[in-house]
Design goal:
Layout (H helix, E strand, L loop, with lengths): L2 E3 L4 H8 L4 E3 H6 L5 E6 L5 H12 L6 E6 L11 H7 E2 L1 H4 L4 E6 L15 H14 E7 L1 H11 L4 E15 L13 E11 L2 H6 L3 E7 L3 E7 L4 E4 L9 H11 L25 H17 L13 E3 L2
Parallel strand pairs: 1-2, 3-4, 3-6, 4-5, 6-7, 7-12
Antiparallel strand pairs: 4-13, 8-9, 8-10, 10-11, 11-12
């Protein structure tokens, strides 16, 4: 949260130059506080696991947050019960009259398909277009990031020679950007995907900036220059054992997959992996909710009280 200081305090200018988040007292006194309303379009097959992962990260801030889960109307998930979806999820028609402070679009197990071949692609496009007017800031994860880059910025994806799966080291291109405030110069994060996007295409696009990348896994954190779109090509939200579960699933299916790199102790799948990215996961979501949602969203938006609510 910001430091509240007297207006025109000389130290304020130095703090701003050092990218310390300060707010002058006259602005602080006029701020009205209400819960943030976040929409989560959950496209992951194991929805309940993804719900927990995202709620854990959004819940670890001083901000009060209401979360509404969204499901596609054009496709019914086979890995979660209908009663769960009926109880806890909305369809777009049920929420399109509302405005939200933030939206997350998750990954989806459709990355090897062309975007237009995905049976709910038109619905996703409609939601992304609606969000331009009705959502303050959007975060897109893995396939969601690729979908946003393709739809909003015309950057396509390409299939990798083999699955990118494991824990990879990343660097930050500009530590003064609020989204990566507090990040280490170098940190690790999980990836799990068969496709990627060109780092050159991202860097050469006039409306995008690359904030973090891996020499092995490629571009990782990408932000639109208007800061309303944040694309994360990996899975900082993953639990310690998520990649292990995916590896065991693929092996059971007989798929030719390699052991996730830099993941299992001594590269032994029988040993329990450790979560070495947790701190940066929490930091990314905290920075997004604070700087790009809470500090930017209008106060006067009208909301219907039909969300799951949790308090810190």
């Amino acid at each position: 949260m910001p430091i509240n200081i007297p207006k025109n305090l000389p130290a304020g200018e130095i703090l701003r130059e050092e990218k310390i988040f300060v707010m002058e007292e006259d602005r602080a006194q006029t701020q009205q506080i209400r819960p943030l309303n976040i929409l989560v379009l959950n496209l992951m097959p194991e929805k309940e696991k993804t719900e927990l992962q995202l709620l854990r990260l959004m819940g670890n801030t001083p901000l009060q947050t209401n979360v509404t889960f969204l499901n596609t109307a054009t496709y019914s998930s086979k890995n979660v019960s209908k009663s769960h979806l009926d109880s806890f999820y909305k369809t777009f028609d049920e929420i399109k009259h509302r405005r939200f402070d933030g939206m997350i679009i998750t990954g989806a197990p459709v990355e090897r398909m062309e975007f237009e071949e995905v049976n709910y692609w038109e619905e996703i496009v409609g939601i992304m277009d609606w969000a331009k007017v009705n959502v303050t800031s959007c975060m897109y994860i893995c396939w969601g990031a690729q979908a946003a880059l393709y739809h909003h910025f015309g950057i396509g994806k390409f299939e990798l020679p083999k699955k990118c799966s494991g824990i990879y080291s990343h660097v930050i291109t500009d530590l003064t950007v609020d989204l990566v405030r507090g990040f280490s110069d170098e940190y690790v994060a999980p990836h799990s995907r068969h496709t990627s996007v060109s780092i050159e295409d991202v860097c050469n696009h006039s409306d995008l900036r690359l904030l973090s990348y891996s020499d092995e896994a490629g571009p990782f954190i990408i932000q639109s220059k208007d800061t309303r779109h944040i694309m994360i090509t990996g899975h900082l939200e993953y639990d310690a054992t998520t990649l292990a579960d995916e590896y065991s699933r693929d092996v059971a299916k007989g798929e030719p997959v390699d052991i996730p790199v830099n993941y299992f102790p001594e590269n032994d799948p029988s040993k329990t992996p450790k979560n070495t990215w947790r701190a940066h996961s929490h930091l990314l979501f905290y920075n997004w909710l604070n700087y790009y949602v809470y500090q930017e969203t209008p106060y006067e938006w009208h909301y219907v009280e039909d969300t799951i609510e949790f308090h810190i």
